[in-house]
Amino acid sequence: MPSLHYDSLLMRREGLTRDLPAGDNEDLRWVTNSSTLIFGDHDAVLVDTFTTVAQNEALIEWVKEHNRRLTHVYLTHGHGDHVYGIGQLLEAFPSARAIGTSGTFAESQIQAREEYRDGFWGRLFPGQIPVPVLPEIIEDDHFELEGHALQIVQAGHTDTEGTTFLWVPDISLVVAGDVVYNETHMYLAESTRESRMEWIASLEMVKSLDPIHVVAGHKYPDRADDPATIDDSIQYLKDFIEAERITSTALELYESVLRRHPRRANPGSLWGAAKQIKGAPASLPRK
Ligand SMILES: [Zn+2]
Fold this sequence. Notes:
Bound molecules: zinc ion
Structural class: alpha/beta
Oligomer: single chain
């Protein structure tokens, strides 16, 4: 059986929380999303899409350059920054199917509503958000690419409800979606004390697979797809949990986590979580 390969494309965009306290992290106020193409000799599977029309147009060109037949677009979870490109991708690759679990479908449905698509994302990226298209629900826990199994692993509540990652045992690859972050502040605005523990358990499960490559859905450019990012993510959550326990205001929580993780990208994500959890004067809409 021919071997599989993978390649990722990163796209940088502005963060979602833009009212951060002044600080020395102004150069880090952005976030990248990753989209990963797994391919054999003839066929390919894409994991996750991007936020804006222009980013998804660039993604389509990049997929075409790989000269493979796209069979599936797999969506790891339903957040708009991962699923909004479905319609454009299916139009460019009509023989492909966009698939996700029922959890991904449910969250995509929420993100397709006007209040999120226009009211939230559209306000942050005016005129740039594609028309949402929902994925088909896949009931099986795996699908195939040129005879290789691509395993869908349920990760529960990580940065939102019903998340998953894709495990490709034949090349020891985890395409992590938002279960693992790479040098980027983790999105905790939707989390609770309980769900943060659930997230750590899911990271322990990723670790138990002993992968060689771990592609994070949000990744600092030029960093390797290093499995050490699993432990880094666990440590970040533990630091956040501890900081949440010993602080009382949003600013204290933000500064406490930032002291331990000063150079991760997208501090706005941390500020958004701090405000949501500690209660800021104006509470944030959900991502
Ligand atoms: Zn995300």
